[in-house]
Specification:
about 280 residues, mainly alpha, MetI-like fold, 11 helices
């Protein structure tokens, strides 16, 4: 069970600190994008198209260069963090809630409920996730919320499978038997005893799911199935940078680096939280 002391000790873990700092920087960039961006990410300047990075910081300087339409790369990267983090947090939390509730129900109640949920997980997990996400977005339409819906519909099985296994493990421990002897009802045992001991694992899975959601959104943006091509997104910038990689490699490199840093931040944070919250590893 997570305690304030455990959380304070987690702040001394270099993985937690490193991942947290990376994500905090991205969060600040997303929230204050309008103040931090030197240009409007949609403004086009064909006279300055494919301009190389300029570190003189003059009035018309572009620190990370421009793309094929003369749009400032740095500004588009900053605004692209809004898309990435929106998908990460919204899709990650919705996926965690859906998968965790179903996993708790399957692991705690067992019987036909467990059989039904487990069969659904097996069937749904048999489809390749990236291919399924592309099919779902193509069916329900493009757009940011379509991407979120596709991620939730695909990745709930990941949470469900792990949480179910952990719930089964917790249900067999002595503290659950003691709660039964004390006369607690099954619903009270689930929410008061088992859920607090399962939540740390769900938190670790959530951080990893957020990183995966960023990658899926980038893939869908790359193939043109996320937000509009004009709006700034890292996947869209990678797709555009691939076409001009020989003339302007900075477009591709910039988007790939921030995408890598974001996924790395979520993964490192998840590894650190696992070390701190897992009593066996701790």
């Amino acid at each position: 069970m997570t305690t304030p002391g455990t959380l304070r000790h987690a702040l001394t873990n270099w993985r937690v600190v490193t991942g947290g700092v990376l994500l905090l920087v991205l969060l600040v960039a997303a929230v204050f994008a309008a103040a931090l961006s030197p240009y409007d990410p949609l403004d086009q300047d064909l006279a300055a198209q494919l301009a190389p990075p300029d570190w003189h910081f003059g009035r018309d300087a572009h620190a990370l260069g421009t793309d094929s339409l003369g749009r400032d790369v740095l500004s588009r990267l900053i605004y692209g963090s809004r898309v990435a983090l929106t998908v990460a947090f919204v899709a990650g939390i919705l996926t965690a809630v859906a998968g965790t509730l179903l996993g708790l129900a399957a692991g705690f109640f067992g019987g036909w409920i467990d059989a039904l949920i487990s069969r659904a997980v097996d069937i749904w997990s048999s489809f390749p996730p990236v291919l399924l996400s592309i099919i779902l977005v193509a069916l329900i339409g493009t757009g940011l919320w379509s991407v979120v819906a596709a991620i939730v519909l695909i990745d709930w099985t990941r949470f469900c499978r792990v949480i179910r296994a952990e719930t089964l493990k917790q249900r067999r421990l002595d503290y659950v038997d003691a709660a039964v002897v004390a006369g607690l009802r099954p619903r009270a045992i689930l929410w008061r005893e088992i859920v607090p001991n399962v939540l740390p694992l769900a938190l670790v899975l959530l951080t990893l799911e957020m990183g995966l959601a960023v990658v899926i959104e980038a893939i869908l943006s790359f193939v043109g199935l996320s937000i509009s091509s004009d709006a700034p997104s890292w996947g869209g910038m990678i797709a555009e940078g691939r076409e001009v990689v020989h003339q302007a490699p900075w477009v591709l490199i910039g988007a790939m680096l921030v995408l890598l840093a974001t996924v790395l931040g979520f993964n490192v944070l998840g590894d650190g939280l696992k070390q701190e919250l897992d009593p066996v590893l701790r």
